[in-house]
Amino acid sequence: MLRIARHSNITARRTPRRLLAATAAFLSLSFTGAALPHSVAAATEPTGGSVSVTPASPQVPAGVTAGVAVFDRQTGTFTEQLAPAATFRSASVVKLLIALDFLWNRSPDTIPAADRTRLDVMLRSSQDAAANHYWSAYGGPAIVERMVTRLGLADTAPPPAAYEGYWGYTAMSARDTVKTYRHILESAPAPVRDFIMERLRQSTRCASDSFDQHFGIAAAFDRPWAVKQGWSGRYAKGNCGSVSTTAAGGIDASAPSSVGAGDASVDLSRPALHTSGTVGAGDRSIVAVLTLHPDGTSYGKAYTDLGRLTRSLNVPGGTAPKGKWYGTWGQDVAVRTEPVVGDNLLTRLPAGVEVLVGCQKKGQLVSVPPYTNDWWAYLPQYGGYITNIYISHPDNQLPDVPLCTSQK
Asked: What is the pTM assigned to this prediction?
């Protein structure tokens, strides 16, 4: 999620007119700076504390279409609703319905080991192959139809004609997503409830397709939380993890390679990114934020915009993590266990994503011409460091970010 070198005097302001040089330096550092940095710091928000102060309204970034619902289970009321009945293609959020359908008349304690394994990776790591198995074996669209009847869902519908094989094209709304979680928590048999929620609480940062899925709820709030995320679109390849092997570029297993205009009542083409789950002790709040982004939006940009929207919400029981949010630049930026380049890779960041910086310290001097810097930022949500070169701020040492005073 130590070596001390002399602090460079180079504090040159980074602008789009400056071209990155020395490709060899990039390769040797395992960084790729295909995108140019910005000189203005992004969203340096206040550090930690309660997030239950109600903003004027959900803050939806420009160009984003959103459906939002936040339900406080303690008071039995919604604290946020923005187009809660609007339908979106579900992407992997529908895996909640797929799991519930399979477990409807089954106990998790008695199902075959192979099914426990499939459900585990489908819910924790959003594995598409597991969803494909259940979709094919148990009737495809009929799964959705059964769950609509069982849960009394108002807006959910199977994939449109000609796309019945693509579970990710199931239509869902924010309010139906909340109702699904309420069923899991309040009506499902205890073994089913516990089986599903335990896996959502154990969500892996890196999904099975190598996308970083700890956006939205998972980044906006301290634990306890439980999440089922969804993404769909022609995004660049996933780069999450400590190994070089990543998913094929732009492959979306929940959708066909191309979709014609007007194929359905829900948008099937714009990049989608959804966060859903619970926040707070006792799963106090249920949160559903479904979003569509302009064509061509990168995964890192969608990740950032969904994060900003989620952080603006009134979520009772939620606590904002301590630190400051900064933008980053470059592709495949490495997060390392120590502030030094070596065999210590934890993962790589989505290109251009905002990150929470907890503290900073001096480490190995890094040179990516024309930039040189020996300051490193500690990212508490990743448990590791990135060189400050890739933080979107003109100074080598970030202002208002404390020094790391303890061993991280």
From this structure: 0.86
